[in-house]
Amino acid sequence: MSSPVVLLVDDEVPFVEALAKRLGKRDLTVMSAFSGNDALEVLAKEPKIDIVILDVKMPGMDGIDTLREIKKAYPLVEVIMLTGHATVETAIDGMKLGAFDYLMKPCEIDKLMHKVKEAKDKKRTHEEKIRQARISEIVTRGRG
Amino acid sequence: MEATEYYRTLTRRMVTSIMLVSFLPLLLFGGIVGYQFQTSYREKTIDHLRELVQKHEQNIDAFLYEKLSYIRVMAQHNSLKDLSNEQFLEKRLLTLQNIYGGVFVDLGVVDFDGHQIAYAGPFQLMKANYSDADWFKEAINCEYSISNVFLGLRNQPHFIVTAKRESDGRQWVLRATIDFVAFNSLVENLRIGETGSAFIMNRQGEFQTTPHVKPSRGNDFFLRVLKESSESTTSTPLVVGGLPDSGPAATGGVPLSSVTVTEDVDFFGDGLIYVMSPLKNNDWILVFQQGSKDAFKDLYQARRLALLILFGGCLAIGIQVVVITRRMVRRIKWGDSERDKMNEQVIEAGKLASVGELAAGIAHEINNPVAVMVEEAGWIDDILSEPDFPTDENLDELKRALTQIRTQGARCKEITHKLLSFARKTDPHEHEVDINELMDEIISLCEQRARYSNVKINRNFASDLPRVLASPSELQQVFLNLINNGVDAIGANGGTVEITTRSENKYVVVDVADTGAGIPKVNLGRIFDPFFTTKPVGKGTGLGLSICYGIIKKLDGQISVNSAVGMGTTFHVRIPFSQQQKD
Question: B62-68, long-range: CB within 8 Å, 24+ apart, which pairs?
Answer without folding.
Answer: B62/B248, B62/B251, B63/B183, B63/B186, B64/B146, B64/B161, B64/B247, B64/B280, B65/B243, B65/B247, B65/B248, B65/B251, B66/B248, B67/B100, B67/B103, B67/B104, B67/B161, B67/B176, B67/B178, B68/B144, B68/B146, B68/B161, B68/B163, B68/B247
